[in-house]
Specification:
The complex is a heterodimer of chains A (about 325) and B (about 375).
Chain A (H helix, E strand, L loop, with lengths): L1 H11 L3 H22 L1 H26 L44 H37 L1 H16 L2 H11 L4 H13 L2 H14 L2 H8 L4 H37 L9 H10 L12 H29 L7
Chain B lengths: L1 H28 L3 H7 L6 H10 L6 H13 L14 H36 L4 H15 L2 H15 L11 H4 L6 H29 L3 H25 L3 H38 L2 H8 L4 H38 L5 H10 L3 H29 L6
The chains are: A mainly alpha (about 325), B mainly alpha (about 375).
Chain lengths: ~325, ~375
């Protein structure tokens, strides 16, 4: 009799996974409400969505149709990203054939812009993911164990914070061949041990002193279990927030380095400005005569960096209740 | 206080050793190492290669080389530049460092004050359209791609309005008639700034000793500041190098504006957040209940408490400002440390690149020290 009631209760109860999913969905809805109230965050989100659609959806479609190398409306075998348009003098202002004009090497500006977009996203997100992964792990471990581990990583973070970041990247990229993935790796590793560790450690310390950590310890949970299942989920919102700021930093660093022509990459927004600059089209008085060479890539870098920063500001109000209006 | 500065100096020395070690191993970690770059250079005869390898001790074990390098760095013997052969690296750095120092001290000070006061009023005007607009403008200038900003600034102020020079740090047609060294003028400008700063500090301390009334303190402080500024202006006016100093300052306006624009917003946003938290404290409510004027509450009660995180942010943003300096300096042809670093990397001039990186690091480290000391002065809770 008792067994059958237990079974019937268990049948009525949802599985723990479903409960967890429901809880997550609820907290997501609440946080989304707060986030969507911040106009800045929403603007940033929309800019990111527009860029993502342009890079991941519009470019492949256009590349397969209009910019197809054997397409009949252009001359035979013209690749908009790498080829030279022989039908006109380059750089040419925007026209119907080239919506944003062509650069000094006869390449279509719009095609280059769209071609680079997924790469910028990849770089920013890979670098930020590495940063956040390292920062979260080390921050929580340092907070949980304290002692010599804590001291070591905090002093390390001090050193990294003092590092002149971009000069250092410039020297590295001058000395070895750096491509996009290597750069993402370097940026991620360098900034992962920096300020983010300090911030996540202090958050970890707050969580460590909460009663549920004590009860987990009493019920015999191992250190690794407590860190992975109790501390990390609670610092996650903060790591996510700093991930946004790190995307901004990574994209900005890449743009700066490729603007100086130091990276071994095929195409990027910074490189587009570098090409126009070294060809001598960006000089004092006549910059507006060749605006399509530098304004679209420059504006794209600014917009995407700004957008991720906007999202970070919006998330800040979700994570940090003291900043809210109420 | 002295003990604190001493311990900070020791910390900085340790950090410096680590930093130099990283730079050294970076030089040796590049593909093939510095040795193979020398040896594979086809312009050198085998005898010359051997002489170079011997002179630089490149056939010694790595750790011995490292000890030598460390010794040399701390005796300011940074080697000889490849691209400016046979000028020692230290001479090039000694020439360029004051220029960076001048540009960045002025720009960071302006950026700090602009960011501080605008962040203050942003938090006070929470929820108004003006707050929203200036936050957006601040974030845009904070994240704008620096070269884009510089192109537009050069075009607008240099070409369209034509009121500022386009690049370089002096006008050649003015300096051609003199055998004066630009270096001397830079050093004199830095000296003047140092004197003004010192007089301001001393008068503040003296006023603190003498009087308990805020009004008298302010009077002493402002009068001595005005006197020293006027005096130094007068001396520059009558001295023969005055016009050259003015020329340098005139060339400096545009770069300073750019660095200010890209770095003020960081201070402003932190100040805004910190003010928003302070406003909710009880003592602000008390001040309001006492019926104090709005401006007094804002400037004296809230802003002073909220100021400390801004100074921390100031510390953290030092590295960022120096990084931004690479772009600013190279686009304005301002021959400071950032431009030296970039061009030495592009010219594969490794001794100069390593030297410039080390001195950029030292520059940031000492800026941190100064800010730490200021911090200790400002926060009554911190006593060493």
């Amino acid at each position: 009799m008792a067994n059958s009631t237990d079974e019937s209760i268990e049948e009525k109860l949802e599985s723990p996974l479903a409960v967890r999913a429901k809880l997550m969905w609820r907290s997501f809805k609440e946080n989304w409400k707060i986030f969507s109230e911040s106009r800045i965050g929403m603007v940033g989100l929309w800019i990111v969505i527009i860029f993502a659609v342009a890079g991941f959806v519009v470019y492949p479609i256009l590349a397969a149709t209009v910019w197809k190398t054997t397409s009949l409306n252009a001359m035979v075998s013209y690749n908009p990203v790498t080829g030279y348009d022989f039908l006109q003098n380059n750089p040419a202002p925007p026209s119907f054939a080239h919506l944003l004009g062509t650069d000094p090497l006869g390449r279509d500006v719009l095609a280059q812009l769209l071609y680079s977009t997924p790469r910028e996203f990849m770089l920013g997100i890979v670098a930020a993911l590495i940063t956040v992964l390292i920062g979260t792990l080390i921050g929580t471990i340092a907070a949980f164990f304290g002692g010599i581990i804590d001291t070591f990583f905090m002093r390390l973070a001090d050193i990294v914070l003092l590092f002149p970041f971009i000069p250092f990247l410039i020297v590295i990229s001058g000395m070895m061949q750096v491509d996009l993935l290597t750069l993402a790796l370097i940026i991620g590793l360098l900034s992962g041990f920096g300020g983010i560790t300090i911030i996540l450690r202090s958050q970890g310390l707050i969580i460590k002193s909460k009663p549920f950590i004590e009860s987990a310890k009493v019920s015999g949970a191992s250190d690794a279990y407590i860190i992975v299942n109790h501390i990390i989920p609670n610092v996650m919102p903060l790591s996510f927030l700093y991930m946004m700021f790190n995307v901004t930093g990574a994209i900005f660093s890449e743009a700066t380095l490729s603007f100086f022509g130091l990276l071994n990459i095929k195409m990027s927004w910074g490189l587009m400005i570098f090409t126009a600059d070294t060809a001598g089209y960006i000089v004092g008085t006549n910059i507006w005569n060749y605006w399509w060479l530098w304004l679209p890539p420059g504006a794209s870098i600014t917009l995407i960096c700004g957008a991720f920063y906007f999202i970070g500001r919006g998330l800040d109000e979700v994570v940090n209740p003291r900043l809210r209006k109420r | 206080m002295l003990k604190y500065i001493g311990s900070r100096l020791i910390q900085i020395a340790i950090l410096l050793v680590i930093f130099v070690a990283i730079v050294f191993f970076l030089l040796h970690a590049m593909p093939g190492g510095i040795k193979s770059i020398l040896i594979t250079n086809p312009k050198l005869t085998p005898q010359a290669q051997e002489a170079i390898v011997k002179a630089f001790g490149l056939n010694q074990p790595l750790w011995l080389q490292f000890v030598d390098y460390m010794k040399n760095v701390f005796t300011l013997n940074l080697g000889i530049s490849f691209s400016y052969y046979p000028t020692p690296v230290w001479n090039i750095i000694a020439e360029r460092l004051p220029r960076t120092l001048l540009l960045f001290t002025v720009a960071t000070l302006i950026a700090f004050f602009v960011g501080f006061s605008s962040g203050k009023s942003l938090a006070w005007n929470r929820g108004k359209t003006s707050e929203y607009i200036s936050t957006v403008v601040g974030i845009v200038t904070y994240t704008i791609f620096t070269p884009l900003l510089i192109f537009i600034m050069i075009w607008f102020f240099g070409s369209y309005l034509g009121i500022f020079p386009l690049n370089q740090f002096l006008s050649p047609d003015l300096w051609i008639h003199t055998n004066l060294n630009a270096q001397t003028v830079f050093l004199y400008i830095l000296l003047t700034m140092l004197i003004i700063g010192a007089v301001m500090l001393v008068s503040y301390l003296v006023a603190l000793r003498f009087s308990h009334k805020v009004g008298t303190r302010k009077l002493v402080f402002y009068i001595s500041t005005v006197i020293v500024v006027l005096l130094s202006l007068f001396f520059w006016w009558i001295s023969p190098i005055g016009i050259y100093g003015a020329d340098i300052l005139w060339h400096m306006i545009l770069p300073v504006m750019v660095v200010t624009i890209i770095s003020y917003a960081g201070n402003m946003l932190v100040m805004r957040d910190s003010m928003l938290e302070t406003i909710k404290e009880d003592f602000i409510t008390t001040a309001r209940a006492k019926g104090l004027p709005d401006k007094v509450i804002r400037d004296k009660h809230a802003a002073r408490t909220a100021m400390l995180p801004v100074i921390t942010n100031f510390v953290l943003s030092m590295g960022f400002v120096v990084s931004g300096g690479v772009i600013t300096e190279s686009l304005f042809s301002w021959p400071g440390m950032g431009m030296t670093l970039l061009y030495s990397v592009l010219a594969k001039d490794y001794p100069l690149a390593a030297g410039a990186l080390i001195f950029t690091g030292i520059f940031v480290l000492f800026a941190h020290l100064v800010v730490d000391i200021v911090y200790a002065f400002l926060d009554p809770r911190i006593r060493y």
